[in-house]
Amino acid sequence: MKEGNKRGNKTMAKKKLIIAIVGLAIVGLIAVPLLTSGYKWTYLGPEDYQLAAIVDGTPIVFFNELQDGDKEEVGVEIGGEKNTQITMRWENNRPENVPHLTFKKITPQNTLIDLQEEVFEVTFKLPGEGTKVWVWDDRQKTYVLSHIEEETYKEKIAKLFVDGKTVFLSANPEEKPLFLTPEKDKFWYFTKKGFWLIDFNGNVKKLSQDKFNGKTYDELQEELIAKTGDSNATLWWADNPVFSPDGTKVVYMTNRDCIGSGGSSLWLYDLTVCQERPLVKNMRGEHYRAVGWLDNSHILYTVYYTNKKNEYYISDISGRYEKLNLEGKQPYVLGIYPNLQILYTSDYSASRDICLAKVDLVTKAVKEVYKKTLDGVLRNSCSLSPNGSRLAFMYAPDSNDTLQYLTVVNLVNKKETLIKRVPLPEGLRTVLNSFNWLDNTRLFIRVTKVIDGTNQISSWIFDS
Description:
The longest helix has 26 residues. The protein is mainly β. Among the domains are: 29 residues; 103 residues, no CATH class; 48 residues, no CATH class. Helix content is 12%, strand content 49%. The chain is globular.
């Protein structure tokens, strides 16, 4: 027994030594320039940090305490066994027994500082939304609607104190965005039946109309089901809301006005006067979806059919529209940026190039700023730095499509920097996961390490 204990102690000592050496190796990487380049890496830690917001130039991140292994352990605690469904949904929702997220700020020196925070919950009910209660009517010999049990909605909000300023964010940014008003004391809330303005005391004001052409949502929903023959067909009053940069207008998709033809249309709501109106009407059963605002007066949207490729159009706020001329077999817009710039790939089915172009609102043509043909497949993670001087994008190389490489382009001198991995010991399997710009030179990168078959996410900063 003693001899077994000695062997166990020696093994434990070796493990501790290995852990200590690895720890020292990682610590040695912190804020140390790589010998092979003029760039600098900063290791933030073995935590899953994600960018929540940038407030007056200060990046705010939240800390997801649940790694994959943790999610499985809590899944066992809740469900009695490893439940993949429970594990996966935690990417979008946090169970009540899991603590709210921790928020920190990133300093210009790449250090993390805890933020003072207060989390409060706004509870509210939406008139007309909830569970229908049916009762039997002896006279009519059928079930009739008795009433609607209104559901109680909850929205958790984090009140943060950042450099002397008060900032409000969703306490669960993993779940869904919080559409705050410019005054930061109310938020807009969207459902398939409409949208509302809600203050932090839970007072509700409905902004959308109760009826369209004299018919309620429920009547239109029944009409849609009868028309399509699909009992799962859904009527959307205001779907995919996209706010203008100045926060005074919102454009959204709806199908309430095109049940007969099928498809959808675009509507615009002016928040300054609380009025909505159709923006782009449905013509032949096509679908419309807003991509984003080019400026405060022009919206880029896509039109798609069941048997044709997508097409892109630009509409002003009066509803005048023209087709945007994008080259390629199946162009797909990846993002919209200041100064009328867009990122797109010329063929979405292949996704083997990326193009940055500037839109001419007069001719509705685009002028190429940068284009790159890839030796791999483009991933969705791509964006411009805040001042537009740098472009970063990820792609899976043909040599190994289980990996992701990150390319950073200086658009001033067109110099490209290829990042294949973070500076960790060779032999350790790592995959670049995603990134965000912290400012005009710093990239916040999340990296997946595969250890004993389990994914562990760590956070890094790359200064270009």
